[in-house]
Amino acid sequence: MADRCPTGFDEKLITAYLDGELTQSAEQKVSVHIEDCAHCRELLADLERIREAAMTTRFEPPPDDQWDERPHGRASLTFRLLGWWLAVPWVLFVLGYALWEAWRGAQGAVERVIVFGGITALVLLLASAILDRLRDARSDRYREVRK
Q1: Comparing 66 with 120, which gets the higher pLDDT?
Q2: Are 48 and 14 contacting, i.e. CB atoms less than 8 angstroms apart?
Q3: Number of Cα atoms under 13 Å in the Cβ half of residue 55
Q4: Residue 51 · residue 18 · CB < 8 Å
Q5: Each residue of 77-126: pLDDT tens digit?
Q6: How many angstroms separate the most distant Cα atoms in the chain?
Q7: Intra-chain end-to-end CA distance of the chain, in Å
């Protein structure tokens, strides 16, 4: 089967035809074309088979214990907390070192304003997002709801 309709017909109309989204005149145009074009008839049949398979496929949600993203054991919780306690100071140290090097490497006042203005803006935006998340986490009345 060729990838495209040999007559140059807009194949997007066939999908709209299948979905019943066309005007009466466009629907008649597609219907007449499908009668004459074997490629588009086959495309319509393929789309109908795909639609039927999608409509009859049952979705089985995973068990509730697979939705929970919290650590499942004491060791996992300990490693996660230890990881955060190590990662946060490391990020702060790297950021401080980067700021120090940027300050030392900047040639003039304009360069320092550009570097520190941008970094300050990003840090303030990040801090704002973190504070909002922390505030929302304390007052979230659905935090105990699963799934």
Answers
A1: 120
A2: no
A3: 6
A4: yes
A5: 888 889 989 999 998 898 888 878 877 777 777 777 777 787 788 888 98
A6: 76
A7: 45
